[in-house]
Amino acid sequence: MNAMVMFCVATFVIPILVIGGSRYPPSEWKRAFLWALLLAGTGLTVQRLVREISQRGELQKIVTMAARTISSKGDSRNEICAAMSVITGTDLVMLFEPDHEDPGVMVVTASHGTDIVGITVSLSGSESSGAVQSFIYGKTRYVIDARDDSAVSSRLVELTGVRSVLFQPIFRAGRTVGTIVIGWSSCIKEQPSWILSGIELLASEIATSIDRADLLARERQLARTDHLTRLANRRVWDEELPIAMARAARSSCPLTLAMIDIDHFKLYNDEHGHQAGDELLQSCAAAWSGFIRKGDLLARYGGEEFVIAFFDTNIDQAEKTVDRLRAETPGGASVSIGLAATNGDEDIPRLMKRADTALYQAKSRGRDRVERAKPQSLV
Predict the structure, then answer these.
(1) Is 229 among the domain residues?
(2) Which among 352, 373, 351, 353 has a CA at the least distance from the CA of 362?
(3) What is d(CA 310, CA 51) in angstroms, rounded to the nearest whole number?
(4) Of 36, 84, 157, 220, which residue has the fewest beta carbons closer than 10 angstroms?
(5) What is the DSSP letter of 294?
(6) What angle do CA 190, 193, 196 make, to 5 degrees?
């Protein structure tokens, strides 16, 4: 800008001074003045364009770096929110997505600058929510003062103290899959166009990241799920049991294991066919799942054998549960069950051996029954 002013002075003012104001042609005064104004205005425009180009260049660097970080992560939702914070210069970013467990709500799946992950908002319109509106209609919306806008959730304002807020829908394959919510702690009348461009650029990265994260989550779930019964598999059991044992040892709370075996399963397969045998396994898994509390673990151990870990449950309580489970076994089948309890002060192979021995006793004593292992101190 200084160079432009000096150029104008050199071009139009110096000639006037050299020639002299009285001798300078009157017809040229107006032209010289207009040219000076034009060039000064052009200088301001050029300066603004240079500044915007520089900002866009920095923006592109930030988006590129964010994209690289995001692509290197399995689930990069938190990295996305952090990148949005860098681009927008705010400390408050939230990602809303439809809840897979409850299709009637959206849930905060990631955030930066505020810890509200898990907060839900209804999709029914029972409460005001800019995130929901942006998701439903696929429109970007900027609110200067969220306190004065009835379309913005009052809970959002109370929880975060947000003032200006932008709702940016996230698109994947032509449909909205979420909303990124960006908030500022003060009222900002207008956001620069380069910031809005950056948000749009990163929103497309978000869609790709969510796709990748969901795919990886499905793959992990498949690797931990028995393909026939949809229960946890042996791998999950082997991972979770040491954790449960350590927790029992720390808290001195009882942990009871149940080993379940379907009686005469080979004979059932021979008489009814393997398809019927598979269906029986599936029916048993579905029926028994209803007896398992949240936090307990039911897994298919292999073949016709199943295992249950009852956390913070003594052997008397566990026996009542598995006896009801035994009575509700479907398909006219029966099961034998062995129980073993511990406080976490023995190794896992020994505990499993005690439960297996109790199961063998149930088999040898006529099947269709529950047997307890000897207490650890008596083994």
Answers:
(1) no
(2) 373
(3) 65
(4) 220
(5) B
(6) 90
The token pair that represents 164 in the structure block: 């200006």
Provide the residue range defining the domain that includes 242. Answer: 234-378
DSSP string, 53-89: HHHHHHHHHHHHHHHHHHHT-SS-HHHHHHHHHHHHT
In sign, the C-alpha dihedral spanning 13, 15, 20, 26 is negative
Q: Which residue has the tokens 């073993």?
A: 340
Catalytic residue numbers, as ranges: 304
If one counts the domains in the chain, the total is 3
pTM, 2 dp: 0.57
Last residue of a domain, one of 222, 243, 268: 222
Point out the domain boundary residue: 201, 222, 243. Answer: 222
pLDDT of residue 287: 96
Q: Which 8-state DSSP code applies to residue 13?
A: I
Distance in angstroms (rounded) separating the CA atoms of residues 142 and 154: 16
Question: Could you report the per-residue pLDDT of 70-97, keeping only the tens digit for each?
Answer: 555 555 778 778 877 877 788 789 999 9
| pLDDT tens, position by position, 5-23 | 554 545 545 454 444 445 5
Do 195 and 85 sit in the same domain of this protein?
Answer: yes
Strands 335-342 and 370-372, sheet pairing? parallel
Is the domain of 318 the same as that of 335? yes
Q: Please state whether 118 falls in left (phi above 0), alpha (psi between -120 and 50) or beta.
A: left
C-alpha 326/C-alpha 368 separation (Å) is: 7
User: What integer is the mean pLDDT of 195-211?
Assistant: 75
User: How far is the C-alpha of 285 from the C-alpha of 257, rounded, in Å?
Assistant: 17
pLDDT average, residue stretch 244-269: 94
Cβ–Cβ under 8 Å, residues 301 and 237: yes
CA distances to 43, 52, 228 from 288, in Å = 78, 64, 15
Residue 9 is encoded by which pair of tokens?
A: 């002075």
DSSP state of 145: -
Give the list of residues 6+ apart from residue 109 with CB closer than 8 angstroms, or none: 77, 95, 96, 97, 117, 178
